[in-house]
Amino acid sequence: MADTVPLIQPDKGQQATAIHLVNREAFPKWVKQLSSGQRAALVGQKFDGSAYQVGIVPDGDSWFAVGGVANPAALSSWCMAKLAEALPEGTYRRVEGEPGPAMHGWQTGQYVFDRYKKPERPVGARVLLTKEAGRIEAAIAEAEAVRLVRDLVNTPAEDMGPEALEAECEALAKKHSAKLAVTKGDALERDFPMVHAVGRAAARHHAPRLMHLTWGKASDPVLAIVGKGVCFDSGGLDIKPASGMLLMKKDMGGAAHAIALAGLVMGAGLKVRLHLFVPAVENAIAGNAFRPGDILKTRKGLTVEIGNTDAEGRLILGDALQRASEEKPELVVDFATLTGAARVALGPDYPALMTRRDETAQALIDAGKACDDEPWRLPLPDSYREWLSSDVADLNNSATNGFAGASVAGLFLDRFVGEGIDWAHFDTFAWRPTAKPGRPKGGDAYGLRATWHMLRNRFGGA
After folding, report:
1. Measured between alpha carbons, how far is 149 from 143 in angstroms, rounded to an integer?
2. 105-161 pLDDT tens trace
3. Active-site positions?
4. Are 245 and 157 in contact (CB under 8 A)?
5. What are 284-332's pLDDT values in tens digits?
6. How far apart are CA 352 and CA 340, in angstroms?
7. Which CATH architecture has domain 142-459?
8. 190: buried, middle or exposed (CB in 10 Å: 19+, 13-18, 0-12)?
9. Domain boundaries defined on the chain
């Protein structure tokens, strides 16, 4: 994505290439207004108005573009994304109306992760004009938040370890005049013992830490955002197979979502007292790694038997959620790449959502549907809590029956969220296995926009 050129700009009548949007049903009638040569050009490109098709139509010494969409009267976030990917560098204007929600995919469709490999054929920015000037700033901020998630998740673990996540939090705090406190290394053992246990086997420059960013007026309602920052997950002593480690650079995807969301909250000046918590670790293997059968102390005072060292994300989140609860928040939202069970149940496109309150779940689902980032709610059944029981500790970190893995992980986290607190948990994939318009293969944000739109509706701007 172009970093220096805003990809959405105000329409002040400047020169721009026209874009027409048409669907398959309306195309036969629409195409009749064109000249025979123009119709022939579209026939040669096999353009029939199907969604995500792109057509180039000669027009004297110039040309205009045609995009196929499902419904030109009700655009989605992604319906113009293929145009942004396929068209040459330049400035464009939709002819029959404003791009509206399609401004998002226009920007995200131009994302390129080029930190390690430059594109063989670099393409300049494709700028889209709109007369909805009041929506531009918000649209750019939202796309930038998605870009940040993608950049952080796509970066391999050696360059995106706990220290690098701390640097991201520092940059965020500096940008928004927030305060950042960091507890790291052996200093974690007293106040955040599970974060310490999971991360203590990592090399010194990847030492575990917990970042706590605060922002906003103390008199405003408290919003706590928590993100799982397992920067690489070997599985610990319950080691993953090689195939299971290939994507484990993305296991800090929850932290990436939390950091990006906090940036949106502060950038828009939401009327909240924000607390961002990012526990960051590498689940490594060494002589001092925590073991199956170990019993860990927790910040809350509960004891946890380790049934599986590869169920480590819930451990570090447990301490962070307890700390967040101590602020007496009106709402806690956490993001985590927590279970493979959520992906088996829902696939990559739907983040699993678990909440204590039905109205919070519905608000997130409604917001997600409105912005094409829909989560899917999974239950937190009381009857499954017994699956986390232990003979020697207050609870086990892993069930042994293999049932309802995402919900059981959510029930573990629920033990560390204060009683009566409104809480939403996202078990998100943070990775797109195959490209779609506006959504290239690689790291991606799921549930971020749904949560942002819900928070904006709930708390409002400054």
Report:
1. 10
2. 999 999 999 999 998 888 899 999 999 999 999 999 999 999 999 999 999 999 999
3. 240, 314
4. no
5. 999 999 999 999 999 999 999 999 999 999 999 999 999 999 999 999 9
6. 11
7. 3-Layer(aba) Sandwich (3.40)
8. exposed
9. 8-131, 142-459
Is pTM beyond 0.90? Reply is yes
Residue with tokens 């059981």: 408
Domain 8-131: CATH superfamily is Leucine Aminopeptidase, subunit E, domain 1 (3.40.220.10)
**Residue burial 103-132, b: 16+ Cβ < 10 Å; e: rest:** bbbbbbbbbebeeeeeeeeeeebbbbbbee
